[in-house]
Amino acid sequence: MVKVTANNIEMRFGSRLLYRFDSLSIAQQQTVHLQGDNGSGKTTLMKLFAGLQTPTSGRIQAHGFSSSPWWRRNPLLGKAVYLHQHPYLFDGSVAYNLNYVQPFCELSTQEIRQRTSSAIEMAQLGPLMQQQAASLSGGERQRLAIARAWVMRPKLLMLDEPTSNMDILSQQLVLTMISDLKTQGTGMLISSHQSCSLTSLCEQSWQIEQQQIMATDAASPIARLNQHKRELHYVTAN
Ligand SMILES: Nc1ncnc2c1ncn2[C@@H]1O[C@H](COP(=O)(O)OP(=O)(O)OP(=O)(O)O)[C@@H](O)[C@H]1O
Q1: Where is the ABC transporter domain (predicted)?
Q2: Which residues contact 136 (CB under 8 A, 6 or more apart)?
Q3: Taking a C-beta distance cutoff of 8 angstroms, is the pair 51, 79 a contact?
Q4: CA–CA separation, 97 vs 37, rounded Å?
Q5: How far is CA 201 from CA 113, 148, 195, in A?
Q6: CB 166 within 8 A of CB 174
Q7: CA distance 142 to 222
Q8: Can you give the pTM of this predicted structure?
Q9: How far is the CA of 146 from the centre of ligand 1 (A)?
Q10: What is the DSSP string of 76-140?
Q11: Rounded to an integer, what is the distance from CA 67 to the centroid of its chain?
């Protein structure tokens, strides 16, 4: 079973302390809803776990993965897949973007082909396959990025505000793919201000507050209270 652990972490930008925590880990078969106000550091935390950012102090380590290629200096890179809220897509068609990940998959060619055609169906990308990715709407971009991740069947996946641009239909399509990955054992960290269909899949909650991160069972009274407070605040602010 693979796992990424973060120990004795302090994260600062200049003199500003973002947070400090003793220990957090994300493993296969673990689903976590990451909550916190705007600017509390959710994206930064995901980037730390994905090896895209380095903590000011402390140690982040990957366990149980196959060893990195010799040329990769940062052993965390490539372990957990991180999907930004405005996903990065390559210049080219939707088909090009979907096929781009094939060399990085630890699956057989036949399995990749099957998964690619299933992903096109599940994300309803068929009519968009020849369209330039740059011309997709925000929700379509998210659907493509999640379909691309689904093909890879990552061991760990981090979704940063995945439903922020999506209508109900897109949310349902993505829910099917993410539920399927959960069934296959992908560990997931999902950041979202509000509870949504995806966060209802999560069994744990990490709450960023007052420069600390509190981990609880998602069904615990404290996690529910925090979620309720956040939603009330969100409704009031809008
Ligand atoms: N490279 C950087 N240099 C300086 N400050 C940064 C840097 N990256 C992020 N920050 C600041 O750190 C804070 C946390 O940013 P982050 O994007 O992690 O927050 P977030 O919780 O994901 O926010 P949101 O909910 O708005 O997406 C923000 O105040 C941001 O401006």
Answers
A1: 4-235
A2: 89, 94, 128, 144
A3: yes
A4: 32
A5: 28, 20, 10
A6: yes
A7: 31
A8: 0.88
A9: 23
A10: TTTTEEEE-SS----SSBHHHHHHTTGGG-SS-HHHHHHHHHHHHHHTT-GGGTTSBGGGS-HHH
A11: 22
Residues 35-70 have pLDDT tens digits of: 999 999 999 999 999 999 999 999 999 998 877 777
Could you tell me how far CA 234 lies from the centroid of its own chain? Answer: 22
DSSP 211: T
Nearest CA to ligand 1 atom 8: 44
Residue 43: CB within 6 Å of ligand 1?
yes
The closest alpha carbon to 198, from 225, 212, 169, 178, belongs to 178
Neighbouring-strand partners of residue 6 = 24, 60
Tell me the pLDDT tens digit for each residue of 7-44: 999 999 999 999 999 999 999 999 999 999 999 999 99
Q: Using 50, 70 and 90 to split pLDDT, how confident is the model at 238?
A: very low
Ligand 1 and 13: CB distance under 6 A: yes
Determine which residue's CA is closest to atom 29 belonging to ligand 1: 39
End-to-end CA distance of the chain: 42
ipTM score above 0.95: yes
The residue contributing the CA closest to ligand 1 atom 10 is 13
Residue pointed to by tokens 């302390």: 17
From 140, 232, 168, 142, select the one nearest 194 (Cα to Cα). 232
